[in-house]
Amino acid sequence: MPKLKPLILGREILTKKEPEKSLLLPLKKSGGRNVSGRVTIRHRGGGAKRKYRIIDFGQEKIGLKGKVLALEYDPNRTAFIALIEYENGEKGYILAPHGLRVGDEIICNEKTEIKIGNRLKLKYIPFGTSVYNIELKPAGGGKLMRAAGAQAIVKGREGEFTILQLPSGEIRKVFSECFASIGQVSHPEHEKEIIGKAGRTRLKGKRPKVRGKAMNPCDHPHGGGEGRQPIGLKHPKTVWGKPFKGIKTRKEKWTDALIIKRRK
């Protein structure tokens, strides 16, 4: 069987430059351990050193026009980021939408032109428009549609709410006073990437996973037996003995009341 070679797509549009120093912060790794040193999240550890890019998910520069200086790779997310220089001379990072190019101008305002990269209130966005980086409550900063290739479609309005269709098929209401950016998150090719080798996964800070069936009975409920054996249980369980697969784990949230149709 031929070996799969790593396949990285979409990075040809990126600017070959170092990240903006004034917008970097140190990022310390926890290795999945809490303050007591106990592993609370398994399969984490190692990985290449990274620095955090300070990204504006909200409306910090409202009313100021900005020019795209560069499109950059961010090791902390699947999407690309854009370096913006504003009219007052300040610089900042935003999530780059698909189709944004160096030299383009964008603006964030309550009401503005419907153009890729512009940010405005949902109540002024026409039906059928793709949006990303959407707030769930006014002035709360973008929470929805921030991963590579993500976009929601504006479907309608009902009272103080705007109705959005999410990629999962879920249809939900969001306050019309909330801000959203026009377009689709950059790097939609991310889902077609091929990791190619175990080393790339380790560089991302992910450690190997072992099947429960391959463990001893003292280490996992699925473990034990001679040779290849079924799990020996009616339903699968986690390593801690809790029901697994098909069990709903979502906790009650105030946004549940705003969901019109659950995801498919």
What structural keywords apply?
single chain; 264 residues; mainly beta; OB fold (Dihydrolipoamide Acetyltransferase, E2P); Ribosomal protein L2, domain 3; 2 domains; 7-stranded antiparallel sheet; 4-stranded antiparallel sheet; globular
Explain how this protein is built.
The protein is mainly β. It folds into two domains: 11-190, Nucleic acid-binding proteins (OB fold (Dihydrolipoamide Acetyltransferase, E2P), Beta Barrel), CATH 2.40.50.140; 210-259, Ribosomal protein L2, domain 3, CATH 4.10.950. 2% of the residues lie in helices and 24% in strands. The chain has one helix and 15 strands; from the N terminus they run E-E-E-E-E-E-E-E-E-E-E-E-E-E-H-E. It has one helix at 198-203; strands spanning 24-26, 51-53, 65-72, 81-86, 91-95, 105-107, 119-121, 130-132, 134-135, 142-144, 152-158, 161-165, 171-175, 179-182, 259-261. Strands 7-14-8-11-12-13-15 form a seven-stranded antiparallel β-sheet, with no helix packed on it. Strands 5-4-3-6 form a four-stranded antiparallel β-sheet, with no helix packed on it. Strands 1-2 form a two-stranded antiparallel ribbon. A hairpin with a 6-residue loop joins strand 9 and strand 10 (142-144). The longest helix has 6 residues, at 198-203. It starts with 23 loop residues before the first strand and ends with a strand.
